[in-house]
Specification:
3-stranded mixed beta sheet; globular
C-alpha cells in the first residue's frame, strides 16, 4: 500500500536522521577503504548518496507532468510506460560524474550536502499535492511504481543500504 504524505515525510525525516547518525559514527579512515568490486570506497559511496539526494524532488515534477499533459500536446493514447526523466548518458555515467565532481570534498562536507539535500527533499514533498503520491512514475534508475513507493525505495531503502555498505555491515 502506498504511503500517505504524512507517512512518507516521517520516513524521510527518520531515515535521514538515522543515516546521518550512522555516517558520523564511522571513523574517518574507514571511508577510504574499498567497499565494492567496482572500486568505490566509502567516501565515494557517500558522495553518491549526497549527490543523488538532490534529484528526488524532481520526481514530483515527473509525476506532475504525467498528471497534467501540456496544453500544446495533441490528444494521444495513454502510454503503458510510466513517466520518467532518464539520466543523461545513463545512470552509471551520471553516478560516476557526480562522484567525480565531489572527489575533493571531505566526509563532513559530503554529510552536510546529504543533510541539506534531504531537507530540500522533505520541503518539496511537504508542498506537493497529495494526489501526486499515487501517480505512476519511473526513476532514472528504472524503479517504477507510484511516486510515494519509488521515493521510499530510492530515498529511504537505497540510501540506507548504501549507509550500511559504508559502515561495512
Amino acid at each position: 500500500m502506498t504511503a500517505s504524505k504524512a507517512e512518507l515525510l516521517d520516513k524521510l525525516r527518520t531515515s535521514g536522521d538515522e543515516v546521518v547518525s550512522k555516517l558520523r559514527a564511522i571513523p574517518a579512515e574507514s571511508y577510504e577503504q574499498g567497499r565494492y568490486e567496482s572500486g568505490w570506497n566509502g567516501r565515494q559511496i557517500l558522495a553518491h548518496i549526497a549527490s543523488i539526494e538532490w534529484s528526488y524532488p524532481r520526481l514530483i515534477d515527473v509525476a506532475r507532468e504525467a498528471q497534467s499533459p501540456k496544453p500544446a500536446e495533441s490528444p494521444k493514447e495513454a502510454s503503458a510506460e510510466p513517466a520518467t526523466r532518464p539520466a543523461r548518458g545513463g545512470i552509471n555515467d551520471y553516478n560516476e560524474r557526480q562522484v567525480e565532481k565531489r572527489a575533493q570534498m571531505s566526509v563532513a562536507e559530503l554529510i552536510a550536502e546529504f543533510e541539506a539535500n534531504r531537507a530540500t527533499t522533505i520541503a518539496a514533498f511537504e508542498q506537493a499535492d497529495d494526489s501526486l503520491l499515487a501517480q505512476p512514475i519511473k526513476s532514472a534508475g528504472g524503479i517504477t511504481g507510484p511516486l510515494a513507493d519509488v521515493v521510499s525505495m530510492i530515498a529511504i531503502m537505497h540510501v540506507d543500504q548504501h549507509a550500511r555498505d559504508i559502515a561495512g555491515s
